Amino acid sequence: MHDALLAIGTRKGLFLARSTGGGPFEVDPVRFSTIGVSAVAIDTRSPSPRLLAGIEYGHFGPSVMWSDDLGGTWQEAEQAPIAFPEETGAALERVWQLQPSPSEPDVVWAGVEPGALFRSEDRGITFSLVEGLWNHPHRAQWHPGGGGLCMHTVLPHPSDPKTIAIAVSTGGFYRSTDGGASWEAANQGIRAPFLPEGSQYPEFGQCVHKVTGHPARPERLFLQHHFGVYRSDDFGGSWTSIGDSLPSDFGFPIVVHPERPDTVYVFPLKADMDRTPVDHRCRVFRSDDAGGSWQALSTGLPEDPLHSTVLRDAMCASPAGVFFGTRDGEVYGSRDDGESWFTVARHLPDVLTVRAAVL
């Protein structure tokens, strides 16, 4: 059995949980104890893994820090790692996503608020604005969702460095085939029921909550929308609804099994402003046929009513297992594809992001 690392970003600090030889996870003391950690990444592309954390200093603003000793010590660039050029008139509000590129060894992408994409060529130490997306004519018409104008999804193609996709609330899903120089909206088939009749399938403006895919089948993507769960079989060229048999097609996270491209997980929530699980039952739903059917998974999860939420980045699937955390600070994991669950941590601050890796 392998050793595993779980990185849990919360509104008050970063918690690292470690498992040795498939044993139970043990949670380290908190890092950045009074600081929000909105994004984490575990970069295992080289023999020496690097941890990245998007942090929120409060009055001093957001930043990115890195660790090359699995969280023992942390470093930060001398100048602001992510900063908008002065001529944009914009200021960084939050780092929403840190995503190592699978096809370029030293490249790390960052999705931020307000709705922008940054690229690093030194493994996440310093970043530069992707101006092709920032200057896209649609950007001026993007409007913040409930969580802000957040670029929460960055999907680099697993083998083609020129192809990359992003999602922003509430701009929608966009893709580029020239390394980010130009972009096209790719939202065909995604219904926006909050818009007036006759205009519910716009070119852009959808409230996308999260998008995911699998490197073995890069053309297939899964998307959790504000109202709807969708699949694309052509890298976003068109989308088909796959959420009709779920108890609710509203939710935030969506993740794909690390080895099976047709297996996808969601956490359905009530579609009203309550934002709690359907019937207040803590259940993950899994499809093993790319969304054709779904089954509820709850063995080992709390049976008491759950009045909390799982946020868009607070669920992950990796060779270490499937994990998710709630806004009331509970973190759960599964090593058997969701058939049974165990508790990783309890009583943490509200969980914003979860990432896991085998070391």
TrEMBL record:
SUPFAM superfamilies: Oligoxyloglucan reducing end-specific cellobiohydrolase (SSF110296)
Superkingdom as given in the UniProt entry: Bacteria
Keywords annotated in UniProt: Hydrolase
Keyword Zinc: no
Ranges in a coiled coil: none
Pfam family of the protein (one): BNR_6
UniProt xrefs under CDD domains: Sialidase_non-viral (cd15482)
Molecular function terms, GO-annotated: hydrolase activity
Record flagged with keyword Coiled coil: no
GO biological process, one term: xyloglucan metabolic process
Xref: PANTHER family: EXO-ALPHA-SIALIDASE, XYLOGLUCANASE (EUROFUNG)
Protein name per UniProt: Glycosyl hydrolase
Species the sequence originates in: Planomonospora sphaerica
Lineage of source species: Bacteria, Bacillati, Actinomycetota, Actinomycetes, Streptosporangiales
